[in-house]
Automatic annotation (TrEMBL):
Domain UvrD-like helicase ATP-binding: 217-608
Name this protein carries in UniProt: DNA 3'-5' helicase
Broad enzyme group: isomerase
Catalysed reaction, written as an equation: Couples ATP hydrolysis with the unwinding of duplex DNA by translocating in the 3'-5' direction; ATP + H2O = ADP + phosphate + H(+)
Coiled-coil annotated residue ranges, if any: none
Length: 772
């Protein structure tokens, strides 16, 4: 069944436009009502603030009166808070209405339930809207159970799930709208599930610097991901451009709607691959009428857990090293370090070491005050190991904290009499002096006669206060020293063969307070198990995009940190660009585990059919890859004789692409090193931007970017400046594949000398070869 473009001149168009007008009219009325409520509320908040103290009974004579006064203040404050909250909700509602006014809905289906005699026309938009009587839905939220009909079915029999069971019936009409500025711009009747025109249009547009919401064209298989509610772990393996990120964002919006009473933005977190990606997707949720959720890179998350005493290598620096420093004398050692520390075997070894620490080995630091050791590390260790051996390490440390605080008391008392305190008192400025004095009086209830003693106590208490605070934060535990010991004296039969050389490098790094990327998650895990984790209970839904880039040890850490959290992992094994990532990846079916459900997406929407047909032949995995039927030019493979010609060809191709109206072209290089070389060669001739790890937002125009930073992002056209066999070796298949699949409309590959093995694998009819 095909697609019918509803004619602008016809009656249907007019009827639908009249309905749009009616809905807009309703929105206008609701806006007016809300504006009125907002003004009333604002006035009453102002008044409440002004008269706040009038309604509070202040009486501090007797303890009972104080309690009453406190209660009275609390009550007033609560009232104010509630009003402000309602005001915030009104604001949100007004924002949504404004969005609806521009584009009230994008779909309609006529559905006749099996038990009903008449059909109902359902209009679907980003948020629901009731009529004035609050009886009928003028618009259904796309996330309502009934809206599933629109995404999952074509004309004929259809059904949707509700809490009370399945509702079945017949779909007699399915219509798509493009409405902008309250005017219908396009209208299509379709018999297919939403493939077709609207999707063609959406995909045919130029790439934008921010991701778009796909709400009006969600595909059936994507809808399954979005609405999945059963699985604790939802694993999505989807080929490049299959809409994983898009579906993830729609899913966030869906869950926030479905569990709107329980789920706030703080309860949802997304690990994104880099800051550029974070800004790239930032507008999708607001477009859907939802607030943004917590977004963080895994690097930042680890940095936060490890603390700023360590520098941590970024994943990109690790990548750059493995790609460019193959001549380094320690290169192989580094590779085996990455290999081993990425495994679960290493995490198990850490567990074994932690177990041994129950009987000996935890390192401590002296507790000193003004350069004098008050409590030595040996005493702390003695106390620690005198505690019940059955207790966990963190529980024992809690007891040590209490013991230390008690032990400090006599020292604090003794310090009060020392000479240095006098100097400190003299240094107090007048204001601090008075404050300290009154504070001390309040606390001690002593007479002013003993003024000096009081001030002495105050000064010492303040300094000991910060000491105690450090103790409470376990500053007396030498975490890195204890970790170091694992690589120094500790004995185990389960160490890998290459342990000696790995240990040497690890110790060197720890001495410099530096952690390689592969070491960061294991170290954070160790630190947490030793000191006690503050596991992230607040996060109820965790989303991990580009999940193929996480090592097993990193996943183990994440699972450990979020034991009660539901997770959605999205990735593509074909794009596993980090050396350590192929083994034990949870996206691989056999590793999915009991609580997990795995969904595969095989259709690629980003690139034209021609690009997908070309790239799928050298895709690393065995996954099926199906193109969406969108026509374009065949990829161009330009053979050149020498490097000097490369720059000339880039110039020529960029001009060609710009002439065709493409707004974003990326020259995608294998490494930052290569990106910098190309950038220096081009920057004086053309307007070009080099993206780096620290780039926080995407711009249009001509960009140069290493592959690992272009992950998850797309461009109108992609130029690969050096696809020679010397530059891309067999092991770099995923890198090359990832680079090619960033292109939406055009792909240009330049080959100085011989083409790489992947191009040779592609069917020759799928690309155009240009020999100079
Ligand atoms: N249902 C859809 N309707 C409209 N556009 C879609 C749909 N699904 C995907 N797209 C578009 O396809 C492109 C790729 O989507 P997305 O970036 O979400 O894919 P991905 O699987 O995360 O890709 P990759 O793994 O290659 O980074 C985007 O431009 C997105 O808007």
């Amino acid at each position: 069944m095909g697609l019918v473009n509803v004619s602008k001149e016809g009656q249907t168009w007019q009827i639908e436009q009249r309905r749009v007008d009616k809905v807009i009219n309703e929105i206008n009325k609701k806006e007016d009502q809300l504006a009125l409520r907002a003004t009333d509320l604002k006035d009453s908040v102002i008044e409440l603030r002004e008269t706040f103290w009038d309604d509070v009974t202040v009486n501090l004579d007797e303890p009972d009166d104080v309690i009453e006064t406190e209660a009275s203040i609390k009550q007033q404050a609560e009232l104010l808070k509630q009003k402000e909250l309602v005001h915030g909700n009104i604001d949100d509602e007004r924002k949504t209405l404004k969005q609806l006014k521009d584009n009230p809905y994008f779909g309609r289906i006529d559905f006749k339930e099996d038990d009903e005699s008449s059909k109902e026309a359902l209009y679907i938009g980003i948020s629901s809207l009731m009529d004035a009587a609050e009886e009928d839905f003028l618009i259904y939220d796309w996330r309502a159970p009934i809206s599933s009909l629109y995404y999952d079915h074509s004309l004929g029999k259809g059904s949707y799930e509700t809490l009370d069971g399945e509702v079945t019936g017949e779909i007699t009409l399915k219509r798509q709208f493009i409405i902008r500025n309250s005017q219908i711009k396009g209208m299509f009747d379709t018999g297919l599930t939403i493939g077709d025109q609207l999707l063609q249009e959406a995909l045919g547009n130029n790439a934008s610097t921010t991701m778009k919401s796909i709400v009006s064209t969600i595909q059936k298989e994507q809808n399954k991901i979005i609405r999945n509610e059963q699985s604790k772990y939802l694993l999505v393996q989807g080929v490049a451009g299959s809409g994983k990120t898009s579906a993830a964002l729609q899913r966030i919006a869906y869950l926030m709607y479905r569990y709107r009473k329980e789920l706030n933005p703080e309860n949802v977190m997304l690990f994104s691959p880099n800051p550029l990606f974070t800004s790239y997707i930032n507008n999708v949720l607001p477009e859907l009428g939802e607030a943004n959720v917590k977004q963080v890179t895994f690097f930042d998350y680890l940095q936060d857990k490890i603390g700023n005493k360590f520098t941590i290598e970024s994943p990109f620096a690790q990548m750059e090293y493995t790609l460019t420093k193959t001549e380094d004398i320690h290169f192989n050692r580094r590779l085996s370090n990455i290999g081993y520390k990425s495994t679960l075997a290493f995490m198990k070894l850490i567990d074994e070491y932690l177990f041994s620490l129950l009987t000996e080995g935890v390192q401590f630091k002296n507790i000193s005050f003004r350069k004098e050791v008050l409590i030595s590390k040996h005493r702390i260790s003695e106390y620690f190991y005198s505690l019940d051996k059955q207790m966990t390490l963190p529980n024992r440390l809690e007891l040590v904290v209490r013991w230390l605080v008690k032990e400090l008391r006599p020292f604090q008392k003794a310090e009060v009499k020392k000479d240095w305190v006098e100097e400190k008192i003299e240094l107090l400025d007048k204001e601090a002096y008075v404050k300290a004095y009154y504070e001390s009086q309040k606390q001690e209830n002593e007479s002013a006669a003993n003024e000096e003693l009081i001030l002495r106590k105050v000064v010492v208490a303040k300094m000991f206060g910060s000491l105690k605070q450090q103790i409470q934060q376990f500053a007396f535990v030498d975490v890195s020293g204890t970790y170091y010991q694992m690589f120094a004296d500790w004995k185990s039969d389960n160490k890998p063969e290459e342990w000696q050389s790995l240990a040497k490098q690890t110790k060197k790094n720890l001495e410099k307070k530096h952690l390689y990327w592969e070491e960061a998650a294991p170290y954070a895990y160790f630190k947490g198990r030793l000191l006690g984790h503050t596991s992230d209970r607040q996060v109820r839904q965790l989303f991990i995009d580009e999940a193929q880039d996480y090592a097993s040890s990193q996943f183990a850490y994440i699972q450990h940190m979020f034991p009660y959290t539901n997770m959605t992992l999205l990735g593509d094994i074909n794009q596993a660009i980090y050396v350590q990532m192929t083994k034990e990846n949870p996206l691989i079916p056999s590793l999915a585990g009991r609580n997990a459900e795995r969904i595969t997406l095989t259709k690629s929407y980003r690139s034209t059919k021609q690009i997908v047909e070309f790239t799928k032949h050298f895709a690393p995995g065995n996954e099926e890859i199906e193109p969406f039927e969108r026509e374009g030019k065949k990829p161009r493979v330009i053979m050149v004789n020498d490097n000097a010609e490369v720059i000339k060809r880039i110039n020529e191709q960029v001009n060609k692409l710009t002439e065709q109206g493409y707004e974003s072209t990326a020259i995608i290089c294998k490494t930052m090193q290569e990106s910098e070389i190309i950038y220096s060669a081009l920057k004086d001739h053309m307007d070009v931007t080099l993206l780096s790890e620290d780039t926080y937002s995407l711009t249009k125009g001509l960009l140069i970017v290493p592959i690992y930073l272009a992950k998850g992002i797309e461009f109108d056209a992609v130029i690969i400046p050096d696809a020679s066999s010397e530059h891309y070796t067999l092991s770099e298949r995923s890198l090359f594949y990832t680079a090619c699949t960033r292109a939406m409309h055009e792909l240009v590959i330049i080959n100085p000398m011989s083409p790489n093995v992947f191009i040779k694998e592609a069917v020759t009819s799928t690309y155009e070869q240009i020999i100079r």
